[in-house]
Design brief:
With 298 residues, this protein is α+β, with helices and mostly antiparallel strands. The chain has 7 helices and 10 strands. It is elongated.
């Protein structure tokens, strides 16, 4: 296992990660009486020919069986029905996943979305819902990190939004955290599969971090200078994603103790990319262990 100290680069990255947590989530839980997402009837599967409604950019703050509530940056709450004909798409970023059509169960509370609507039954139906893969992973990890589920039979309470707010607040002041150690695992050119040594090192790092109750892991993927910027961005994200999956599935690290994984492509090299040896050091994923200074005694 290799431990290095690169605090300045990681602290800069922490600021980026903190900013990536959805910023429009409410700080308190929703009151069911105030989360008015009532939709009467079942919206049609064929939405063609219906009058266009407004386009909404905001956050899902409540969910029901065929409906959701969208809260925009100015605090406006709008109920929107979800139809069998609603086109739900993810795009960009995390793990290099391409744009694709998804099921409505991907619409988690706390997820920032862009929604095109049509008018129906005196209200709005979503004709298209788009979100970013990075945002979905964040909302998914927050949801899976609790025992709560939203009620499919009525207006659900978004209990997870409060947890998302707490996570954002926890990372708002990065000076409150010490970087205790960094474990690097290395990859072959153009690859993102883990070596046996890398697997062992990851579980050893997780075991050590688990000894401190409030330790968090920040996983960052990197590449050498071979290849285009777009290719290396995707490759660094895939490497980070592979490490996250192994930490959670094989090393049993809990999702709510892990910040959103990040790919940094060729940035922040450990060594010069002018030599094969330097490139080998730069093809890595760094697992950073963060500990609260109040617990760490500093």
């Amino acid at each position: 296992m290799q431990f290095v100290s690169k605090k300045s680069g990681v602290l800069t990255l922490l600021a980026m990660v903190a900013a990536s947590v959805p910023g429009s989530l409410p700080a308190q839980e929703l009151d069911p009486a105030k989360a008015d997402i009532t939709v009467n009837g079942v919206p049609p599967a064929d939405l063609s020919g219906l009058t266009e409604g407004p386009e909404l950019d905001g956050t899902i703050t409540a969910r029901g069986a065929n409906r959701m509530q969208i809260t925009t940056a100015d605090g406006t709450k709008t109920p929107v029905a979800i139809s069998e004909g609603t086109d739900i798409k993810a795009s960009g970023g995390f793990l290099g996943m391409s744009r694709k059509t998804l099921a409505s169960d991907a619409l988690l509370p706390g997820l920032p979305v862009s929604v095109k609507t049509v008018q129906w039954g005196g209200g709005l139906v979503a004709s298209e819902i788009k979100f970013k893969n990075n945002d979905f992973k964040t909302a998914s990890m927050i949801r899976n990190g609790t025992a709560q589920r939203f009620d499919e039979q009525g207006a659900a309470i978004d209990k997870n939004a409060a947890l998302a707010e707490a996570l954002r607040g926890r990372m708002a002041d990065i000076d409150k955290y010490n970087i205790k150690s960094t474990t690097n695992v290395y990859f072959d050119t153009g690859k993102w599969n883990l070596s046996p040594k890398g697997q062992n090192d990851l579980c050893a790092a997780a075991s050590e971090a688990d000894a401190t109750d409030n330790a968090l892991l920040l996983v960052v993927g990197y590449t050498d200078s071979v290849g285009s910027q777009d290719f290396n961005q995707q490759l660094s994200e895939k490497r980070a994603g592979r490490v996250v999956n192994y930490l959670q599935q094989a090393c049993h690290w809990k999702p709510w103790r892990m910040l959103t994984p990040t790919g940094m492509a060729e940035a922040d090299p450990l060594a010069s990319n002018d030599t094969p040896e330097g490139k080998a050091q730069n093809r890595r994923v760094s697992v950073n262990v963060l500990v609260s200074k109040s617990v760490d005694g500093m």
